[in-house]
Specification:
Number of helices: 6
Radius of gyration: 16 Å
Helix content: 25-40%
Number of strands: 2
Distance between the termini: 24 Å
Order of helices and strands: HHEHEHHH
Shape: globular
């Protein structure tokens, strides 16, 4: 949300779709994300730029195809690029198993706990 607030401060329209309920939706849950973005953008008249962070970046082409509004571009933030065709796993099997082991009742802890207290110190001085 800080990015959306900064965009609005600069006179841009920023829409952050609600994904509440997607985690509890029938599998595969990712298929419910484009519909949520469609709802959030349904009142827009101008072209949009879709921004996806991390695993959400893999969904940007699917979301773009689902929208009624024209998509001017896709921005992948700290994300892998989706393949030109076919399926793409969200992560390596070892990483997915690591995440499952950290989950409690199907929910992951705050992302900063994934890497331990010193991971950010190594990345950002």
């Amino acid at each position: 949300m800080p990015v959306a607030r900064e965009l609005e401060r600069r006179g841009r329209v920023a829409v952050v779709p609600s994904l509440l309920g997607v985690a509890e939706a029938p599998e595969p849950q990712w298929r419910h994300v484009p519909a949520a973005v469609c709802v959030a953008t349904s009142d827009l008249q101008q072209r949009v730029v879709l921004v996806g962070h991390s695993g959400a970046g893999l969904l940007l082409p699917v979301i773009a195809d689902a929208l009624d509004v024209e998509v001017a571009g896709l921005v992948f933030v700290d994300s892998r690029l989706p393949p030109p065709a076919g399926r793409s796993p969200l992560g390596a099997p070892e990483f997915i198993e690591q995440l499952r082991a950290m989950a409690t009742d199907g929910l992951l802890p705050t992302w900063s706990r994934w890497f331990g207290p010193d991971a950010m110190r190594e990345l950002v001085s």
